Amino acid sequence: MKIELKRWGLALMAVAALTMSVTMSSCSSDDEPTAPAKTDPEVTYKGNVAYSNGILFNNGTELGNGTQNFHFTGDVTLERGTYLLKGWVYVDAGAKLRIPAGTIIKGDKQTMAALIVEPGGYVEMKGTKDAPIVMTSAQPAGQRRPGDWGGLIICGKARNNQGTQQIEGGPTTIHGGNNDADNSGIYQYIRVEFAGYPFDTDKEINGITFGSVGSGTTIDHLQVSYSNDDSYEWFGGTVNCKYLVAYKGWDDEFDTDNGFSGTVQYGLSIRDPRIADTSQSNGFESDNNASGAETTPFTSATFKNITFIGPRTAKNSDFSNTSDYITAGSVFPDNGSKLGLFQSAIQIRRSSKLNVENTLAVGYPIGLIVDGEKGNTVKYAKEGGFHLKNIIFAGMGVIGTDKNKEYADYLYDYATKTEDHTKQSYSHTFFFSEPTNREMSEAGLNLIDPKGTGQNYCPSVTLSDGKGGYIGAFRDTSDNWLDGWTNFDPQNTVY
Length: 495
Description:
495 residues
């Protein structure tokens, strides 16, 4: 009996050993268990509008469900990674979305992808110098074009001079209110590339659009490259911004409308000489509103320490402001967008009271247009309603013109429709009425290109304003705020 029990014991030990061996082998590094697929969040519909407290779909790889009316209502922090943005994703009032440093978001072309922050929505996009957040085209390297996807739209509850209004570009978002200190989130160290999908004729989304964004919002270190409309546009609001780069955009670089009254300091604009819009492209284009009505609050933003590098530079010695030259070259999108001509470094019109200080502008056909076609901009200029000071123009075709889309420097009165070719334009006179403004040659600026942008933009010797400050976006080559996070070859970057 003892012998039988012993035999049974040995047999059981053998079975146990075999089981352990099989178990250990099944858990080896060569045969890891497959992680279960992530379940898509629940979506409810009201008509054709989709609502969800989740934002990640397709096993956590896509932002939005691909529709043009997807509204995120939850509170989500993404993991650092690469995501495909599909459709128009609205971050609704009360919703919170946090996107960590180093995240890449690719905009889907087929669904005209856009990220839209609604008034009352809150988004944190906190990139870093070494790990920026990139929003770019989903097309392969070498095949990206302006307008491959929608863009980034941020809206809030600050004042504008239209009360409340629908945001430009097509989304249904209504922005505006009475809270000038409104907070739409934190946006730092972000690149937006190849945005501006034209979902309808003349209805492109800008690279980054601000609609009534309040001063509680943090905006710094943003780069917009190859936008298919304006690089940046503000509709009302009070938000302050620092360290903005506009690179080879289609239309205007910094467009201000509807009572924007914030301060923007440190900005670099570099144009592609072969890309300009049918409306004629400017550095600054500033309106109080479309009609020029004297509604309040006035567009009265202040831009400081901006550098514009236009198409007429020493490196573009063959430039011609004609349709034969301005063809967009290899990045023409063939999406219905129309090319045009370059116009001015600064166009102030339609009762705007835009202030510009310590700014350098190089190589535009026209330096300044104080445009009297609509509204009372000329009147405000004569009364001291806004100022341009410590500004250098270099390499301009003409210093100023009074007539929109007119490339000659003579006096023109819109009220009487009279021309006087014996006198310089009022825009010319107004520019030099401020003794701190001056004209220089491009060679005299001693500009270099330390970041490989393709254009000389940074002074090797400080362009002093005579008061301890400096003119332009950079003090000198030691001023390195572009380092680490910018990219001046997004076409060939593999994401």
